[in-house]
Amino acid sequence: MSGTEMIKIVPVILSGGTGSRLWPVSRASFPKQLWPLLSENSMLQDTALRAIGSLFTDPIIVCNNDHRFLIAEQLREIGIEKARILLEPIGKNSAPAIAAASLLVEEENPHYILWVMAADAVVQETERLIQLVEEAASLAKQGNIITFGIQPTRPETGYGYIQKGDKVSDAQHAFSVKAFTEKPDFQRASQMVESGQYLWNSGMFVFSAQTMLQEMGKYTPELLSSIQTAIQQRKTDLFFERIQLEDFEKVPDISIDYAIAEKTEKMLVIAADLTWSDIGSWDGLWDISAKDEVGNVAIGNVVLENTQNSYIRSDDMVAAVNGLENIVVVVTKDAVLVTDRRKSQDVKRIVEKLILANQKEAFAHTRCYRPWGYYETLASGHRFQVKQLVVNEGAQLSLQKHYHRSEHWVVVSGVAEVTRDTEIILVKENESIYLPVGTLHRLKNPGRIPLVVIEIQSGSYLNEDDIVRLEDNYNRLD
């Protein structure tokens, strides 16, 4: 590859986290990177939009199977329709994801440069970031692996740290790396910041596919071998590339820091003077959000009196707060969180308790997104459940039946095309149709506006796993 040849940079976005410290907004079914927490776009969308332009190829997104349609739709909303979406059947940390992306890029050109970034980090100075990425790409062409260290503004116990070494000659912002340090306690973090030798570990990396795979072959050959097999055996599913579970189960679970960054002799760090945050807690979100004159962030249906330095958010009912400071209050349709803002890192422990208690609120929202639209639970009780279904124009549910429940559909707006056994019936606004237990049925929106249906379920068992799919546009028959 000649020195004058244009550098091709492939954005690689890792979207595998659940963001449990931002519960009850962020949950496994709809994690923080898919929410618009700081702008009109989701964090995933803002991340993808940073890598738009002649310097970049279409992105690779590495995510889990459950979020595939949500991610594809969010990318489509911002005009990205040719992303390669690689599906991991189970979470295996960052090293396998980066290895898989590197192998995909190698298939096209081993000299292409990858820019790996998390889907849930915020960078406010995009133009400055791109300048630093170009500098990193030039260093990556020379066989280096570059990470980005953020100039710390305070002692932060929620971040890892990178100790700078010597300045790299002929590079404006690059240094060798002396050491990586995992999340320190407050005293140690204070000492690191005061020394001026340490940077926050952003988790962003720039390298060529060839260099990363060579280093993995040297330091983690078992991981590389198992990922090579998984990528060779992957299957194409609609516009997704799906790694098979039996292949991925054999892959070691390890972060890129432990697998490569702490071992390789090719690691450099760029000291980045950027406003950056991984939004790892409600306190972190408060810190980076625009505030009123007394330090409050108020979002949604909120009324405040004599309240200071707080983050208050309500997506549903009125949240009224009086005479408090340094708190977080978050209200969703099915949960309320109240915490000291400075202890919001501990929200993860609450989620762990909810998981142990098998509380569904730990995992899922009342609104659940599907490739055809979404449904939202409105009410439930003994042997009944009421949901609102919203079906996108031209979309349809799978052809299915239930063994334990009957369903009654009432059309609120739009026109429904309903398959009921061998019949096809048009159901209009304010009309309804009954589907007895065992009936083969399907709901389709043939119109040009969203179809809104109230679904009343009744029966002895009402969970979502009582669905037998016979046909599905979205390959969900497994």
From TrEMBL:
Catalytic activity, EC: 2.7.7.13
GO biological process: GDP-mannose biosynthetic process; polysaccharide biosynthetic process
Domain annotation MannoseP isomerase/GMP-like beta-helix: ranges: 300-354
Mannose-6-phosphate isomerase type II C-terminal domain residues: 358-472
GO molecular function list: GTP binding; mannose-1-phosphate guanylyltransferase (GTP) activity
InterPro entries: GMPP_N, Man1P_GuaTrfase/Man6P_Isoase, Man6P_isomerase-2_C, ManC/GMP-like_b-helix, Mannose-6P_isomerase_type2, NTP_transferase_dom, Nucleotide-diphossugar_trans, RmlC-like_jellyroll
Name recorded for this polypeptide: mannose-1-phosphate guanylyltransferase
UniProt lineage: Bacteria, Pseudomonadati, Pseudomonadota, Alphaproteobacteria, Acetobacterales
Family: Belongs to the mannose-6-phosphate isomerase type 2 family.
Domain (Nucleotidyl transferase): residue spans on this chain: 11-293
Keyword field contains Transferase: yes
Keyword terms, alphabetized: GTP-binding, Nucleotide-binding, Nucleotidyltransferase, Transferase
Reactions accelerated catalytically: alpha-D-mannose 1-phosphate + GTP + H(+) = GDP-alpha-D-mannose + diphosphate
Highest taxon of source: Bacteria
